[in-house]
Amino acid sequence: MTFDGLMELLGEEGFTALGGLVIGAAFGVLAQRSRFCLRASTLEVAHGRLGGRLAVWLLAFSTALIATQGLILLGWFDTGNVRQLNNPGSLSGAVIGGLMFGCGMTLTRACASRMLVLSANGNLRALLSGLVFAVAAQASTRGLLAPVRTAVNDLWTIGSAQRDLLALAGIGHGGALLFALGWLAAGAVLVRRNRVSAWASLGAMGVGLTVAAAWWFTWRAAASAFEPVNVHSLSFTAPSADFLMLVLSPPGSRWGFDTGLIPGVFLGSFLAGLAGGDLKLEGFKDGSSMTRYITGGCLMGFGSVLAGGCAVGAGVSGASIFVLTAWLVLWSMWIGAVLTDVLVDRPSRGTTLTLQEVPR
């Protein structure tokens, strides 16, 4: 059956939600098996190691860029209706929000997507942090923190034309593809040096492909639907907040891609953890540990809304279409994570890196 035929059969809302569920489940399986996480890769760099976790992140990141730019060059996706490139942006929000998110993900020991993946495997610390993250994101979008978020974003704004990094650099999509291939080569070198398994490497590349798949699916759905469909890729800030409100609110809310994404990732990670024997209940050691995770969740929730995306939403999805503010967010997250490790974690544990695990 054709794309349009399935949409007609299932209805626009049901079809886009099913797409989110399927792509989310694929992301959940691949992220769980590859142990994809921005926070883990930043800590390796902070401790002077170019290790396996960085290799996994680079493979996912570069694959997302290559696949997305390839879709554009083939005419299977265009950014004409993508919000990030057709609306003003905030440089102040990108930098400050990115720093806050980086700090928060170090405190919670996971980025937003990783928290969801770990929650499905029984990690209660990640579950609580994820719930706090969703509440803080909702409060920053439409609640008590919204005026603060608006004030910070308004400190330094730029027009939509200034957000297109490819236009500013003058390299075009072909140049972007070559740029991404360079990062893929770097990731491949680290994979070989750290003896990252083929399964973990393929899983990481699969994570990148789900980002491109989400771009294609929402773009294709928007072209066929009668009702407006937002063209976007994977992100975990607005979807987490919206899914939380969907659960708490009376029935009748409109469904879409994001409605299926969160349960899809959870289901995919659970099944992957079950198959790999990774399901295990893990809780908090003490009250101070809980305080750390709650604080980190708050920083991540507010910071990601301020920045316009999380480690995946801005750091990979936004970067894959070369949005200037998304790249600023990504670098700010790295800086915030490293600074928090240096100033908060390292003095309390010495200088030994705790992430010795090589993805398998």
**Biggest sheet: strand arrangement:** 1-2
Enumerate how many helices there are, as a single number: 17
**Percent in strands:** under 5%
Average the pLDDT over all residues and give the rounded result: 92
Spans of at least 5 consecutive residues with low confidence: 351-356
Structural Rg: 19 Å
Structural class: mainly alpha
Shape: globular
Number of extended strands: 2
Give the SSE string.
Answer: HHHHHEHHHHEHHHHHHHH
What does the main sheet amount to?
A: 2 strands, antiparallel
Describe the structure concisely:
It is built from 17 helices and two strands. It has helices at 3-10, 12-34, 38-46, 52-74, 83-86, 91-108, 112-120, 124-142, 146-153, 165-169, 172-194, 198-224, 238-248, 257-276, 287-307, 313-320, 324-349, and strands spanning 89-90, 157-158.
Name the descriptors.
single chain; two-stranded antiparallel sheet; mainly alpha; 17 helices; 360 residues
Explain what you see.
- The chain is mainly α and 360 residues long.
- It is 73% helix and 1% strand.
- It has 17 helices and two strands.
- It has helices spanning 3-10, 12-34, 38-46, 52-74, 83-86, 91-108, 112-120, 124-142, 146-153, 165-169, 172-194, 198-224, 238-248, 257-276, 287-307, 313-320, 324-349; strands at residues 89-90, 157-158.
- A two-stranded antiparallel sheet has the order 1-2.
- The two termini are 37 Å apart.
